[in-house]
Amino acid sequence: MNGKKVDMNKKQVVIMTILAVVLAFMEFSGLPAVLFVNFRLADVTPYILSMMVNFLIMGLLAFIVIKIFGKGWPLGFQASGLADGFIGYAVPGILSGFLSCVAFITGLRPFDYEPTVWKVLIEGVIYYIGVAIIEELYVRGLFLNIVEKIAHKKKNSTVIAVWVSAIVFALGHIPGMIGMDAPVIVGKVIANVGMGLYFGVLYKWTNNLWLPIIMHILFDICALPYCFSTFSGYKTISLVGFVIAYILLGIYSTALMKFVKRPGEEGKDSEGFAGEDKSDF
Fold first, then answer.
1. Which of 91, 162, 190, 209 has most Cβ atoms within 10 angstroms of its Cβ?
2. What pTM did the predictor assign?
3. pLDDT at 263 over 90
């Protein structure tokens, strides 16, 4: 029985790993929606519309796979922990988002474009809701937990998983930065590591995936000023403000990992999640 249990857990980790890779590929490539979604809506970028359809396909795929193979997986789509986590950890994130938004506005002024309501609503808000849900699902809900399970024999397996997922999250944004100047790429990668650390801490220190999703949405919507400009890059002041905001957030998150115990940590055994049987993996 013990051997079967170990095999089943390893099989689940393999399946969740495959799902995370497939979801990441679908987001990076836009497949399959880019092959058949081709329509325009006012001044909304057509690619944004196809990606939104792709998010629905990705969500459906993830739901089916997790429903069949994800029994007991610590995903975190639940209400418990959300309110307390928001009260305890959201303020630094809100302040960082506000600082980055101010930096964007300062760098983009004077604004030279008048978008339609459709562009602001879809490209500046709804699209980012989809981005946040999908990325938090496969980066935190799947990948972070996969790394934590692989590193389960180490006492600091959760911290390792948070750092690894944050770095991968940051590096995963590089394809979208192709063509940008090197300082911009380096700055955005550093800032995204800070974001990733924060999202990982929110997730693991509340056992709730909705909180990082909500904060991820907030951070992305802070780029809304770009809807009012034809400039798509980063002015120096915008880049500096953006990087500083999320470096500070990364430092805050690192301090939380060092000094604040996460729920159930006191009862965590030496080889797994809180209350997990040592033979699970």
1. 162
2. 0.93
3. no
